[in-house]
Every structure is written in C-alpha cells, then in structure tokens.
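The following record pairs a protein chain with its ligand, fe (ii) ion.
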Amino acid sequence: MALTTNEILELLETRGQAQYGREAVSQLEHALQCAQLAEQHNESQETVVAALLHDLGHLLAPNKDDATEAQQQRDDLHQFVALPFLRGVLPDAVLEPIRMHVDAKRYLCATESDYWDSLSPASKRSLELQGGIFSGSEANAFIAQPFAEQAVRLRRYDDWAKVPQQATASLSHYQAMVEAVAISRS
Ligand SMILES: [Fe+2]
C-alpha cells in the first residue's frame, strides 16, 4: 500500500492542481509555500518534508465536489488518510507532525488568545468540524506527545501558506530532501 517517493511527488504534481479547500491557492502552491516557510525557519529536513506533504490526504481522498452535502459537512480526517501510504517509506519525524497538524490548531486556539482571530474563515469553519478548541487537559496531553512541537510550528506555516501568486521553489527542489529522509529499504 505504501507509495514510493517518486509516486508521492507525482501525486502532488498531478492532483495538486486542485484548489486548496476554500483558499485562493492550489494544493501544490500551498504545499510548496508551507515547505518554503519551514525551510526559511531552519526546520529539520524531516519537518520540511512534513510541511510539503501535510495535506497529501486531501489528494488521496475522494473528490469533495462529488460528495453529498452531508458528506461535505463532515470532517474529512485528511491528517490520517495519507499515513498508511507513507508509513514504511518516511520516518515518524515526518509522519507524526502530519498526523498532529489538525490537533495543533485546536491546541493553539486553547493556548494563544489571538490565534483564533488569525485563522482564515475556512480554517475557523473546519475547526468546528475537527472537534473545536482543546480543553486545558487536552492541550497538555497533546503537547506532551513526541513531535507535537514540530506539529505546532508546521501548523503556523500551514496557516501562512495561503498567499496567492507567492513565488516558491518548484517541487523538484524537494526531491533530494524527500529521498534523503526516506527510510532505506535496502
Ligand atoms: Fe494545509
């Protein structure tokens, strides 16, 4: 079931032309902006790759336009969808921030008073579908997990990576990095 690193990047390239939810950028533009922000903030290669691939689940899930209205009202759980395709190919340092990037929004809403205000309308709306703001004890349990800090930082890049027409490196810039962090299968 796992994809190869080439298949992962091909998926981003081909299916990434779709619009990123209700934002004014495509999935691929969003992924490249997110990875670029992680790089600019001197993140590890694993966190940069997690930023690049954090929404891969959106590209693997059925097309939302084909969903019924009731289905569109539900959370798509995209943070989990990509994991079976990446497990065994990429390490936990990549997988765990991807898995936790939605809960990181719930965490930041609970711990930073002005964070909720900074979210885009689409992101505020999806927060409710994703379970809403964490309670104090939920926030504490969340941040105690391995890679939670990386997930929180990834979340901020995710929030900022929605700028129309933003110049970024191309996907090929990240190919070597994805291969460098991939689990050796030899
Ligand atoms: Fe995202």
